[in-house]
Amino acid sequence: MKTSWWPSRQTSWRLLAGVAVSLGLSFGVSAQTAPAVAAAPVAATPVAAPDTAPVVKSAPALPAGSTAQPGWNVPPKWSDVELKPQYASVPGREMNVLLEDKGQWWRTIRNGPVTFYGGILMLVVPALLLVFFAVKGPFKLHGAPSGKLIERFNSAERMVHWTMALSFVALSVSGLILLFGKYVLMPVFGASVFAWTAQVMKAVHNFVGPLFMFSLVAFFFMYVRDNYFKPIDFTWLAKFGGLLSGSHVPSGRFNGGEKVWFWLSIVMLGVIISVSGLILLFPNWDSTRELMAEANLVHGIIAILFMAASLGHIYIGTIGTQGAYQGMRKGYVDETWAKEHHEMWYNDVKSGKAVQKPVGAAQPAAGDD
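^ thats the sequence. predicted structure below, dont judge the formating
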């Protein structure tokens, strides 16, 4: 019997089933060992390195309906100024400094000791003068008025004096408002009224200042001749002019106290306050920030001392001494007044050494009774 090489039908189905099982197992193993598909990368949130870059914040939102634009007064922008090099095209000293961190000492001193102790001084001095006036009263003449007048100040002398005096009052009022206004006026009238008032006072201060300086120079050259110290002036100072004892102390045209006022206040304080004022008034005179801060402190301190001393001068020249105001207002004083207060000058007038214009009978001045 001849055997065929072709497998039987049963054997063929077995072979096909084995191949199918083998292929299935192969695909299963491949599916288990094949790498998974990588997921899409997620963008990482950038984190600023510490101490290397500022945290940038948006400018604060403006009120609804506001037309103002966000300015530079936001911390992120100032941090950006500090951390990055900048460029300045304006020539001049310290013009390349945009953010100054050394001015806090000036603010601390101005808003601290200067304001505090200066305010106390400006309250204590008037109070002491009022107490003194209540206790002693005005210094009156010992003798009766003679009815004869002597020229005390000519028209030019009085014009210069009153120009200086009125400009000084304007500067004092405006300066006091600028220094103490936010503590005294703003709580009462509000920030808006004080801001407007301070702006006006600043303009008054800036424009009246040069007039005051000019009058100081004119006053110096006009009065310096009669303000040189003489031996009799030291006697007057030692006895305080007899203000406390009531004794008579002779003096020239100006007594020792008036000469101290001239050299200490008009000359010394006047020069310091004028120079510091010019530095503040003209900041473009190649001044540094440190110089401007120092000038501001010196100007404020000297101004307070000047005002305190002026209160004493004003008191003596008005309600404190009978007949004194008449001499500066009208230019003439009674002979009795001249003899009791400035005896040596009175003798010079009588002897012809000092100028005396012939005038009529004396007329009582308001406030000189």
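The CA atoms of residues 1 and 98 lie 117 Å apart.
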